[in-house]
Amino acid sequence: MSDNVQKLVDLLPQLGEGILVTLQLTIAGAVLALIIAFGLGLGSRARTRWARVPSRVVVEFFRGTSLVVQIFWLYYVLPLPPFYVELDPLACGIIALGLNYGAYAAEVVRGSINSVPTGQWEAATALDLGGVHRLRRVILPQAWPLMMPMFTNLLIQLVKGSALAAYITLHDLNFFIGELRKGTTDTVFAYTVGLLLYFVFAYALTLLMNALEARAKHKVGQGPSLREVLRLTPARTAGTEVRS
Amino acid sequence: MPDNDTTPAIEFQGVGKRFGDNVVLDGLNFTVAKGDRVTLIGPSGSGKTTILRLLMTLEEANDGLILVDGKPYTHEIRGGKRVAIPEKRRSLVRRRVGMVFQQFNLFPNMSVLENIIEAPIHVLGIPKAQAVARAEDLLEKVGLADKRDARCTQLSGGQQQRVAIARALAMEPEILLLDEVTSALDPELVADVLGVLRNIAETTDITMLIVTHEMQFAREVSNRVLMFDGGKIIEEAHPETIFTSPENERTQEFLRAVL
Amino acid sequence: MNDFWSWDHAAAVFPDLIKGLGITVLATVVGMIIAAVLGLVVAIVRRSRVRVVTMPVGFLVEFIRSTPLLVQLVFANLMFTQFPSLAVGCVVLGIHYATYMSEVYRAGIDAVPGGQWEAAVALDLPRSRTWRAVILPQAIRNTLPGLGNYAISMFKETPFLAFIYVVEMYAAAQAYGGANFRYIEAITLAGLLFLLVSYPTSLLVRRMENRLA
Hints:
The structure holds three protein chains of three kinds.
Chain A (H helix, E strand, L loop, with lengths): L1 H9 L1 H32 L5 H16 L2 H11 L11 H27 L2 H9 L4 H31 L11 H12 L2 H33 L6 H5 L14
Helix pairs in contact in A: 2-3, 2-5, 2-8, 3-5, 4-5, 5-7, 7-9, 8-9
Chain B lengths: L9 E10 L2 E11 L4 E5 L6 H8 L7 E6 L2 E2 L2 E4 L2 E4 L2 H8 L2 E4 L11 H11 L5 H14 L15 H13 L5 E5 L7 H17 L3 E5 L3 H7 L2 E6 L2 E6 L1 H6 L4 H10 L1
Parallel strand pairs in B: 3-10, 3-11, 8-9, 9-10
Antiparallel strand pairs in B: 1-2, 1-4, 4-5, 6-7, 11-12
Helix pairs in contact in B: 3-4, 3-5, 4-5, 5-6
Chain C lengths: L6 H41 L3 H15 L3 H11 L5 H26 L3 H9 L4 H31 L11 H12 L3 H29 L1
């Protein structure tokens, strides 16, 4: 056992590298996914067919054709004729994760916007707040807290999907588990450590996202502020809510 | 109060509205003079609320024309055909019409003050300082000056509705539409809201279209009552007349049921 | 241009892909049956108020749910070399998705009105009878769309089995690509076949959701 720990300490630089690669895939993939999600999610609600139909097709395409196929399509097929696009493996991973989870998140964006009560749209119209302004100032701030819990789920899914990167030559956390196994020749040790690392990583992301969700909810007048959530002393009941 | 301008504030010319097979309004004609306070009464489903929603462009009429201040609003006749007026031109009319909703519909992501100044700043282009000063005046008027920075979700229904009234007035509308503004309130909160509206009716010359079940309020505030049934106006009179001696049988039945 | 897409290669790989699709569907069905049964057990166990039981089960569920299926598959396959990879793969898929399904059941059970429990108590029904005859029949109806959605999702994750040497559809495509240095037809067709199965199924599930809503 102590040999194993010694080996783990020896491999710390590789572990650092693995975490860094997984972190890069996660952050860049998530940012790309978020951009795609809003692009396609808003596109799916557009009034003109020219925006709506392509958005729907792209969303269904990337939801329907398996992340594994997508990532290896980018890796194996894209460098071939007629494309001749040789992507860096990291870019391959980021793009595949971004497209796949972006397509799922686009549905979240669309659904959340649709869940904002119609009264809010009508009140904005009654004040003559038009298209973009209405969306930006009234609808999206309210749709955002509805999106957050589902985004958190997708982010964890994305981290899990990023383990594929090891199979396109990237030295991510998954790759490190293999190295640790080779170094210690102890499969149980290597995979227990590896899975725990993934778990801690996912848990930290969940905590961060929960904090963001609390903040988003507070901004639309639901729940306590982030400061109240994080305060160690028990929070007093913030303002008695009077509802008719 | 109305000045010498005799152009009606609102004119409906043969307006029809259907939802699927359900005819809600059927070739409706009526005019509302400037400064009029018109109450629309009638059983539910008789099309009262639809009239307000058409005036707010929340629904689109199937036939006929709606004129505001003598000018076509949502549709016009061009070359003998009824064509839709583009959004940009509608918007110029719409900003002169305000509406207060049954469910208040305050924006929960904004404070009370932000709710009120949002449209004046971004739609009318009023400088922020001026918009804030005006919002504070309005909050004073509706008795909520101390709630300026409160979150809407922390207010009672009656307070929310008074903020919604201030928000509508901040646009300085020429026409104000009140859609069952007290129906979602607990009974003890109704009086405050009606008090605010009564005060507005007394101190301004805004044209008002009111849909309400508060007959006493209708009687005090309005100078005309239109009784709707089956998408048509079946009786029209001064409130004193219609509430004391309605002529139409359906009106009599309806008033007996609600009074 | 004829470099780009060869129908000959497409035709040559197609039978392999269909054979692989068979394995993919088989793994999904077996995996989903395990997930559906195990998920229900987990959901009921987690509702008990015995903390000695709920705490470790809760941790295990969180752990399995938030770590990569791919890593779990490879790990299990290295541990249980005496079993065929396909069997190991189906069980791991089943256990992983059981953690999702347990949440679906939990929501379904929570959605049964509290009055139903109270009525069962008022009738003095035994607890097991209450579960079997009153709560579950109502809860399971609510869980059908979730079951359908996770089945589709699992179907699209079966290519992970390729990394434990199960020749499902993606592995078949990859094998053909590697052997003939022609990846484009094989991988593209594999992707399209996934879409061809998953999209109509998701439409069906959506219809079911709308009908139950």
